[in-house]
Amino acid sequence: MTSPSDSPATPSTPAWVTVLLAFACGAIVANLYYSQPLIKLIAADTQMPLSAAGVLVTLSQIGYGLGLLLLVPLGDLVEARKLVAALMGLATLALVNAALAENATVFLASAFAIGLGSVAAQVLVPFAAQLAAPAQRGKAVGQVMSGLLFGILLARPLASLLSTTGHWQTVFWLSAVLMGGLALVLLKYLPARRAALSTQGGQADASPAVRYARLLASLWPLLRNTPLLQRRAAYQAGMFGAFSLFWTAAPLLLASPAYGFGQQGIALFALVGAAGAFAAPVVGRLADRGYTRGLTAAGLTLGALSFAVGLLAEPGGALGLIALVVAALVLDAMVAVTLITGQRGIYSLGDAIRSRLNGLFMSLFFMGGALGSALGGWAWAHGGWMRVCWVGGLFPCVALLVFLLFDRPGARAQTQATR
After folding, report:
1. Is residue 50 part of a domain?
2. Cα(355)–Cα(126) distance, rounded to whole angstroms?
3. Taking residues 214-243, what's their average pLDDT?
4. Which residue windows are transmembrane per the record (predicted)?
5. Is 6 inside any structural domain?
């Protein structure tokens, strides 16, 4: 007899549920990026030295990273709806606090809490996989992740545009209202699914603190003993590093004398580049048909080549802008390709470990992104757009090398035999 948590998901999950999950993921993860184009405005109003203002973005990322490791694994232990509602409640309160902040200390604490609460998105993604039938899992994950990618890509331009029509606090107030409303909608309308963690080893009789400690203690062995997770995390860290580097440096290029774009022009470019995220649902369907390895190879290769196209953008002009748009579209689409194929693969490893796998995967994913963002600013300062493209292209090239060395059938078999 199968327990509710182990039973296969019903194929009749309404399409609107997937759409709701996709929208929610995008809206939640956008909270991490709203402050980036508003740093100068926030610093001025909170008496924060501009030289230290960059730390507000860092703190939200630190909060998010800690949440991925400490809170997302709870999805294997706690019902997803309740966990998501609690995390979104935290994000709502933190957004309100940020909007009301009159000094740097309050805003920085709020930024950390916003990051912590925003990991709700990473509870919803494996929940979408759990709701889908196995044969449609890639499609479902692709649709939900398209929402998440749109949230990442659209947050900064939307924040810029909103700040030109009002005050920077408007962005945080609107997001707080959206988070609170979404939390209530998700709690009411998402189907109930019992947490899938196995009850073997006296787990059911242990206290909550003991169960949580065991959950965290299992993370390192899970990473060490899951070669598929290691490979997929390496690929995606490389791709998201390239993505973050590109989107850190591209606005600097567009604002330079070669293009002379203002804030609204840069925001419009980001909106155009976001179209690459439309690839996610298509990739999910192809992955369901068994094309995972080919998609991965294509994603890593084209991700590297996008920076070769990007080199043509350095002189400026119409042709340079076209090259930059093409590079952005290709890179964004290929990040979606590798992300969806990776998540589909690790989610197939079992219901009882899915949230922990996702927490580990996304932690390494965002570590790559953090490195890319840091190197993007460094490369621009020390060599301009040319160095940005060379450094950015290295990220997917290294990931492709890992793929070629360790994702061959013989290499996979040898790795499994040594564990």
Report:
1. yes
2. 6
3. 93
4. 12-34, 50-71, 83-100, 106-128, 140-159, 171-190, 233-254, 266-287, 294-313, 319-340, 360-379, 385-406
5. no
